[in-house]
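Forum: Protein Structure Q&A
Topic: Joint prediction for protein chains with partners

I've read a bunch of threads here and the consensus seems to be that you should model interacting components together rather than docking separate models afterwards. I'd like to see that in practice. Below is the full input, 211 residues plus whatever partners are listed. Could one of the regulars post the assembled result?
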Amino acid sequence: MSIKITQYGWADYWSKLTAGFIANAAPDVFTDHLSKFAQFADLKVLRPLDELGPTKDVKDSDYQQGLAQLWKGQDGHRYGTPKDWDTIAVFYNPKATADAGISDQQLATMSWNPTGATSSAAPASSAPPARTAPTSPSRITRTSGTSTSHPSPIR
Amino acid sequence: MKNKTTFLFPVTSNAADIVALMNPQFDSIYIGSQSASSLTGLNDQLNQLFSVVQSG
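Posted by a regular:
Agreed with the consensus. Here's the joint model:
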């Protein structure tokens, strides 16, 4: 077996990956993203890791609490495993936000999807900065970069 | 994490559709042809995207 590693810029990477799926020329293993994999799973271009020999024994408990569950699709299959994780924080200029009529309290209790009728999602943190880490997995909109990514075989 | 002041990264479906809606809108804001308040309409569009996809 030979392994060929390639790297691309962020935007090119996802375009090329998607094109590769369509052209049946996708990589066997690739770095995915929590903001991307659900659509790939919906399009059925990922193989469920829980049905592949080498990865079927992966357990949620193998990882930091909560991380591995995020990679399970709505169908319950595992479509990736964490390869790393980090935290994302929001920084703001208190003068600018105060001038705009936004209080620190509002920022501290904001959710990921401000108008969501289905606001069962995002538990707001008690302090303004710092996001990402153990709580319950939730499925909502918001693109933003973190790198809880993983290798994921392709069909 | 020990103090539970963080939460897990939100999983997102419809990623390509979201990017297709968000990129031109943010580009317009960056070059000054749209105001930041236009994001409210964008947010509505994004929410609609999910209701359309879920019901379809």
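Chain A is about 20% helix and 0% strand.
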